[in-house]
Design a protein that fits this description.
Layout (H helix, E strand, L loop, with lengths): L2 H41 L1 E14 L7 H6 L2 H4 L2 E9 L2 E7 L1 H4 L7 E7 L2 E8 L14 H5 L1
Parallel strand pairs: 3-5
Antiparallel strand pairs: 1-2, 1-4, 2-3, 4-5
Length: 146
């Protein structure tokens, strides 16, 4: 057997092993995500809040409780997350937000939102207006590459 065919067989075996490992890990992560989403759905409640500000910022700079920072994985602490500063009743709070919902939240407007703990899951209504869903613009070929 020539040397190139042996090398080719080894490379194919390694690729197949990597594919099997990725599918197993992917299934485990998918099950974990479904369990977390079920917990969020079970604990969510509708709250009326006045949105003061919204920013993409790091968790350690967001002013979230220390317990939240301790529970987040170290890889996510330095990553920028969608943070909404809102007045709920007499208290001003910093809340984390779902990235899909973040674009729909208006600034300086009263919003009825579905909240699970300190995580905004969805928006029910906006006082004095409609929920605005921004349109996705198509990117050009050069902008995609950047």
């Amino acid at each position: 057997m020539p040397v190139w065919s042996i090398v080719l067989l080894i490379v194919i075996a390694v690729l197949i092993a990597a594919l099997v490992a990725l599918t197993i890990v992917g299934r485990k992560l998918q099950k974990k995500q479904e369990a977390n989403n079920a917990q969020l759905e079970a604990a969510k409640q509708v709250m009326s809040m006045l949105v003061i500000d919204k920013k993409m910022m790091k968790l350690k700079d967001a002013g979230l409780p220390k317990m939240v920072l301790d529970q987040t994985p170290k890889a996510l602490r330095g990553r920028k997350m969608p943070i909404v500063k809102a007045k709920i009743g007499p208290r001003v709070m910093s809340l984390m937000c779902d990235p899909k919902v973040y674009d729909q939240i208006p600034i300086k407007a009263e919003v009825k939102a579905e909240v699970s703990g300190i995580y905004i899951v969805g928006i029910k209504s906006v006082r004095g207006g409609k929920i605005v869903v921004p349109e996705k613009k198509k990117k050009g070929l050069f902008k995609k590459n950047k």
